[in-house]
Amino acid sequence: MTAGPETRKAVPRTVLMCRPDFFTVTYRINPWMHPERPTSTALAVQQWESLRDAYLSLGYDVHLIDPIEGLNDMVYAANGGFTLDGKAYGAKFTYEQRMPEGPAYMRWLADHGFEVHEPKAINEGEGDFLLSNGAILAGHGFRTTLESHDELRGIFDREVVSLRLVDPAFYHLDTAIAILDDTNIAYLPTAFDDASREELERRYPDAILVDDQDASVLGLNSFGDGATMLIAERATGFERQLAERGYRTVGLDLSELLLGGGGIKCCTLELRR
Fold first, then answer.
1. Which of 85-89, 120-124, 146-150, 255-259 has the lowest mean pLDDT?
2. What does DSSP assign to residue 68?
3. Which of 28, 72, 147, 265 could form a disulfide with 174 if both were Cys (CB 3.0 to 4.6 A apart)?
């Protein structure tokens, strides 16, 4: 029996976002990106503003980092680091086009009171690190190394669960797993190798399993407060699954930002004091 809507309690969220004033696609570092196709910065800003406004309507505390000209992907704030217990683990990007984002986000986090730990290992922040039930689910295989998982353990003194991603279309963990609340997740089974899938099955026997169709519009790249999930509006099957479990959903169109390989969660770095 699934929980009813009245049993879902919202937990206030504090997030960091970056307005996509310089968003465009001029290179290809993931399967979603096609530089030959036109993009609209104005439309990307409009869609991003709909996400920010939705967060504000839910009572989120939304902070902004200034975008930097030439950093096309800085809008994907989740990749800028990982925060927990007032500490921040900085990002060290795989591709040179994004490398300057790491120091920019670390400066912002330091200026806003976080104890910043500069990374030695390659990692792309909350794109591959998700907090669940007190543990850190940590992706690897495309953009983040296993060595960074060891750094996480040392900094935060939390259990770190390494999960190997195997599908290039789902190159960050937050494209293949959605955190629903403190104990529940949704995920795409085929995005993981056998050992990782077995670990997820063991830890989350009641997880929502999302199909390829919803995952292909980055339906899992969603974010919520434990009661309301903001998801891609085209992920209609996932929307039904969430409703059956008692979650309220808000569907949004971030299709322009999808051209860069990101969605709702990619645009959202949670700030945990």
1. 255-259
2. -
3. 265
Summarised one tens digit per residue, pLDDT across range 32-75 is 789 899 999 999 999 999 999 999 999 999 999 999 999 999 99
Place of tokens 């909350």: 126
User: Both tokens of residue 157?
Assistant: 């003194």
| pTM flag (> 0.90) | yes
Six-digit token pair at 17? 């976002």
**Six-digit token string for 168:** 């290039």
The residue with tokens 């910065």 is: 41
Q: Residue 176: what residue type?
A: A
Residue 179 in tokens = 């955190």
Q: What is the DSSP letter of 216?
A: T
Active-site residue numbers? 172, 266
Residues in the chain, total: 273
Count of alpha carbons within 13 Å of 94, Cβ hemisphere only?
18
Amino acid of residue 167: D
What is the edge-to-edge ordering of all strands in the sheet holding 208-209? 177-179, 185-187, 208-209
Summarised one tens digit per residue, pLDDT across range 163-181 is 999 999 999 999 999 999 9
